[in-house]
Design brief:
Ergot_Alk_Oxidoreductase, Rossmann fold, Oxidoreductase, two-stranded parallel ribbon, alpha/beta, seven-stranded parallel sheet, 292 residues, NAD(P)-bd_dom
């Protein structure tokens, strides 16, 4: 009589479909899931390879890509289509299809400035609890990475040493995308889903003058914050090719920052992950070329 080999431990979960798996939070979420041994289907428009994950092609505007992407998935991380002022038009049909295909938990990336039922992705937030028994909406503040990676702020810092906003002296609890992803992994895989929206911030609220000073100190190059009016900000964003309605939405968010709407910090990252959120200066030291 021979002894049968011991079974190899496997994740009790099905696959997690990570939409936007090459983006700022999607790539980190996919990596975090894979590091914990979960099956990951990494969805992007070009089925780009992601370490530890199965690449799948997915385009919000091509429903023919949706069924194959959902195959074998029982949970999904949702990054809305970038720049779409009405993402619900494409997201809600997909979510109904996902539920029918066996997805039981959905985690949506929204924003701290967008409440349930509000503009843009706020409509998807409002619908999510009625579609899935297990769900969460992540509402992070502005990303710290906006000042060092692919973003209009990072580009203007590199080219001109300038950050332009209509936020005035308003402060924001900027959050590290690594912390957003860490919360996403917990929301996707913990035994109990949050079944709520989670406002995510860093450890302190900073004004754009503070951000400029920190980047200047880290790089040794002058960086300043130029204050725009709402109209100037809207027109500048539109000139980059952004849809006018979405440009107006973003400029309006800056105006709300100037009025104090984002001057807050939360304990959500600590509470969900068990560790404190990272600071902006720590991010600069870790990721910015020439940081110190």
């Amino acid at each position: 009589m021979t002894n049968a080999p011991a079974p190899v431990p496997t994740s009790p979960l099905g696959a997690t479909l990570v939409i936007g798996a090459t983006g700022t939070t999607g790539s980190r979420t996919a990596a975090g899931l894979a590091a914990e041994g979960h099956r990951v289907r990494a969805a992007s428009r070009h089925a780009t390879a992601v370490p530890g994950a199965e690449p799948v092609r997915f385009d919000w505007y091509e429903p023919a890509t949706h069924a194959a992407a959902l195959a074998g998935a029982d949970r999904v991380y949702l990054v809305p289509p970038l720049g779409d002022p009405d993402p619900a038009a494409v997201m809600l049909p997909f979510l109904r299809r996902a539920r029918a295909a066996g997805v039981r938990r959905a985690v949506l990336l929204s924003a701290s400035a967008v409440p349930e039922g509000g503009p843009a992705v706020g409509k998807v937030h409002q619908a999510l609890p009625g579609l899935f028994d297990e769900w969460a909406v992540l509402r992070p503040s502005w990303f710290m990475q906006n000042f060092i990676h692919r973003h209009i702020h990072a580009a203007s810092i590199r080219a001109e040493g300038v950050i332009r906003t209509a936020a005035g002296s308003g402060r924001v609890g900027f959050v590290d995308a690594d912390d957003i992803a860490a919360v996403a992994v917990r929301a996707l895989t913990d035994e109990r889903a949050p079944d709520s929206d989670l406002v995510l911030t860093g450890p302190e609220a900073l004004g754009y003058d503070d951000i400029a000073a920190a980047v200047a100190e880290a790089t040794g190059r002058p960086v300043t914050h130029h204050r725009l009016t709402y109209e100037e900000s809207r027109d500048r964003l539109t000139a980059t090719g952004m849809p006018p309605e979405f440009a107006a939405l973003l400029a309006g968010m800056d105006r709300a920052v100037a009025e104090g709407a984002e001057d807050r910090v939360t304990d959500t990252v600590q509470r969900v992950t068990g560790r404190p959120p990272g600071s902006f200066r720590a991010l600069l030291a870790r990721e910015l070329p020439g940081g110190r």
